[in-house]
C-alpha cells in the first residue's frame, strides 16, 4: 500500500456498519512491544493488574524467534509462523539473492484480524508506533495510523508525533487511540502496537521504565473510561535482556575455513538505534549442503552459542515455515546475539539490551472481556490471544 492509499484510508468516512447482534462490544487488541513478564512484574500498573485479577491473566510464551514481526503477525493472525510465514524481521530473498526486510504484506500467508473483521462487516483500525507494521499488517483496515509517519491529516488533528526513538511516541499513539475510541464508535476492532525502544534503553527496574509503563497504564485507564463497552486483549511480542557478546557468523565461519553463503540475524530491521540489528537467533545459508556438518560443528563451539539446528528441526520445534528460515538455525544463550559486525566477535557495551532468543519468550497475556467465559488452559502462546475472536 502506498502513502496516498494510506492517507485516503485514514481520512475515509466509515462505509461499513457493525453487525449489531454479533459484535456489540468493541475490541481493543494491544500488542505491547518488548513488554516481557519481567517488565510486567517489576511495574506498578494498577489498571492492567486490576484487569489481570478481574479478567484473565496467563504467563505465556511467544513465537520463536522472539522478534517483533514474527510475533506481531502471529498475534494479528492468531496462528503460528508456520502458517502465516513471517519468520522474522529479515529473511533471505531467493529471488534477489539478498537479505531483505520481512515487512511486506504480500509475504503474509494468513488472514489478519482486520481481514476477518471485514468479512464480518466490522470496521477495524491499526494504530502503531512503527511504520513497518502498516506495510506488513494493514490490509483490511479502514483506519491505519503509524506514529512514525503520520499523514498530514493526522498531524493536523493530533499534532506532530514525537521521534520514533522515544517513549513519548507511545503516549502520542495512545492519545490517537483514545480519541478514536471516543469519537469513532463505528470502529469495532482496534489493534494497538507500541514500540519497544524504551525497553531497549532501560531495564525493568529503572525509573525510566517505570515512568513509561505507569504512563501507558494511565492511557489504558483512559481508554477504558471513554469506551466502557470495550473489551481489552493484551499481550507482547517478546521480553528484553542485557546482552554482552555478539558474533558475526559469516566472518567466524570464513575465518575457520568454511565460508557461508550468508548469515542473517532474524532481528535485523530498520531501527538500528534499538539494537543495531543484533538478535538471539541467526539463519545460516550454506554454499553447499555438504558444508552443514562442518559449519554446524564449528558454530556450536563458539562461546555463547546454545544450539545449532537443521532447518527441519527448527521448523518443527519452533513452529516455523521451513522455506523461510536458514539451512541451519543458530540460537544464542541469554547473553549472546548475532548479526553483522566489523570483526567476528565483539563485547557489547554495558547498556546494550536486545532479544530474539528463547530467553525473551515469556510474556503476559491479559484479557478483560465480560462477555466471554475465558478458560486459562486455552492460552499457552501469545497468539492464542486473538485465536478465538473472529472465525475466518
Ligand atoms: Zn518487538
Q: Can you characterise this structure?
A:
There is one protein chain. The chain has 392 residues and is α/β, with parallel strands linked by helices. It folds into two domains: 3-239 and 361-387, 3-Layer(aba) Sandwich (Alkaline Phosphatase, subunit A); 243-354, 2-Layer Sandwich (Gyrase A, domain 2), CATH 3.30.1360. Helix content is 34%, strand content 21%. It contains 16 helices and 18 strands. It has helices spanning 3-11, 37-42, 46-54, 68-77, 81-84, 113-119, 131-137, 152-158, 168-183, 197-201, 207-226, 249-255, 272-275, 292-300, 311-318, 384-387; strands spanning 27-31, 56-61, 90-93, 98-101, 123-128, 143-146, 187-193, 231-235, 241-242, 245-247, 262-265, 281-285, 305-310, 328-332, 336-338, 345-347, 353-354, 362-368. The strands form five sheets. It has a seven-stranded mixed sheet, sandwiched between helices. Strand 5, helix 7 (131-137) and strand 6 form a beta-alpha-beta unit. Helix 9 runs parallel beside helix 11. The protein starts with a helix and ends in a 5-residue tail after the last helix. Zinc ion binds at residues 33-34, 68, 196, 237-238. The site of zinc ion (ZN) has 6 residues, from loops.
Amino acid at each position: 500500500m502506498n502513502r496516498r492509499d494510506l492517507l485516503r484510508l485514514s481520512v475515509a468516512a466509515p462505509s461499513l456498519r457493525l453487525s449489531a447482534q454479533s459484535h456489540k462490544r468493541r475490541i481493543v487488541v494491544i500488542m505491547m512491544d518488548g513488554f516481557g513478564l519481567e517488565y510486567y512484574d517489576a511495574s506498578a500498573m494498577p489498571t492492567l493488574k486490576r484487569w489481570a485479577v478481574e479478567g484473565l491473566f496467563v504467563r505465556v510464551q511467544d513465537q520463536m524467534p522472539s522478534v517483533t514481526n514474527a510475533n506481531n503477525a502471529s498475534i494479528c493472525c492468531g496462528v503460528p509462523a508456520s502458517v502465516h510465514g513471517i519468520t522474522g524481521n529479515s529473511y533471505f530473498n531467493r529471488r534477489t539473492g539478498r537479505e531483505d526486510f520481512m515487512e511486506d504484506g504480500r509475504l503474509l500467508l494468513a488472514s489478519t484480524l482486520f481481514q476477518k473483521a471485514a468479512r464480518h462487516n466490522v470496521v477495524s483500525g491499526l494504530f502503531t508506533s512503527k511504520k513497518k507494521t502498516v506495510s506488513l499488517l494493514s490490509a483490511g483496515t479502514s483506519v491505519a495510523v503509524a506514529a512514525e509517519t503520520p499523514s498530514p491529516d493526522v498531524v493536523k488533528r493530533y499534532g506532530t508525533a514525537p521521534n520514533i526513538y522515544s517513549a513519548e511516541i507511545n503516549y502520542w499513539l495512545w492519545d490517537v487511540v483514545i480519541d478514536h475510541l471516543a469519537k469513532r464508535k463505528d470502529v469495532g476492532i482496534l489493534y494497538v502496537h507500541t514500540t519497544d525502544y524504551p525497553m531497549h534503553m532501560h531495564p525493568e527496574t529503572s525509573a525510566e521504565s517505570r515512568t513509561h509503563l505507569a504512563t501507558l497504564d494511565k492511557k489504558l485507564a483512559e481508554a477504558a473510561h471513554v469506551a466502557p463497552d470495550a473489551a481489552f486483549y493484551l499481550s507482547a511480542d517478546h521480553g528484553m535482556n542485557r546482552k554482552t557478546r555478539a558474533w558475526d557468523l559469516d566472518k567466524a565461519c570464513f575465518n575457520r575455513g568454511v565460508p557461508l553463503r550468508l548469515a542473517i540475524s532474524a532481528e535485523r530491521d530498520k531501527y538500528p538505534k534499538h539494537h543495531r540489528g543484533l538478535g538471539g537467533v541467526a539463519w545460516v545459508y550454506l554454499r553447499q549442503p555438504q558444508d552443514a556438518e562442518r559449519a554446524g560443528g564449528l558454530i556450536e563451539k563458539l562461546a555463547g552459542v546454545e544450539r545449532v539446528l537443521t532447518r527441519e528441526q527448527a521448523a518443527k520445534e519452533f513452529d516455523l515455515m521451513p522455506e523461510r528460515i536458514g539451512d541451519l538455525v543458530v540460537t544464542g544463550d541469554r547473553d549472546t546475539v548475532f548479526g553483522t559486525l566489523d570483526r567476528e566477535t565483539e563485547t557489547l557495551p554495558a547498556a546494550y539490551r536486545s532479544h530474539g532468543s528463547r530467553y525473551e519468550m515469556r510474556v503476559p497475556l491479559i484479557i478483560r472481556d465480560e462477555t466471554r467465559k475465558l478458560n486459562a488452559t486455552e492460552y499457552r502462546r501469545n497468539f492464542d490471544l486473538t485465536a478465538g475472536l473472529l472465525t475466518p
